[in-house]
């Protein structure tokens, strides 16, 4: 029971730290603010996490996990390699979090990554997983070499649109970000392979998952 309660308290603190991170960025995510958000004293925060860096590392893992959960949920309904790629793209622009405040928090995290090896390690795991998921389906439409290049391009497009969302005073809506990234993917396909108006249904059916 003690272990269960401790795990719950740690999770509460991680979620409070994530909310603090979204509101204040990684630099403003202090132990005092996290404790206030969680309704816990400074001493309790230090009891469950021995250092601020340990807690921030947990926040980074949690932040990446929230994105991947959206992707996994959409992948559950994917029935073809094409729809898998669409699910991965769409899952990276969730309605509830693709907005300026959250995007700015991510930008602050990217900026801190070169100085924090654990941040870099977590990001590398995330990018390898994204790359692998994309290549798995992209290679059904193009050669392996091109599939790897396309996967890299899509991941860069995703990062760029999150950065634009954080930096632009004009709202970048999730549907706009999805549409731009889909268009980039379609531009990589051989000429005539995909027509958004006439052959989408046939295209999706033909490239079924294996």
Automatic annotation (TrEMBL):
Superkingdom of the organism of origin: Bacteria
SUPFAM superfamilies documented for this protein: Homeodomain-like (SSF46689), Tetracyclin repressor-like, C-terminal domain (SSF48498)
Record carries keyword Transcription regulation: yes
Organism annotation: Chromohalobacter japonicus
Entry's Gene Ontology molecular function annotations: DNA-binding transcription factor activity; transcription cis-regulatory region binding
Keyword entries, A-Z: DNA-binding, Repressor, Transcription, Transcription regulation
DNA-binding region: 30-49
Residue intervals of the HTH tetR-type domain: 7-67
Protein name: Transcriptional regulator BetI
Record's keyword annotation contains Transcription regulation: yes
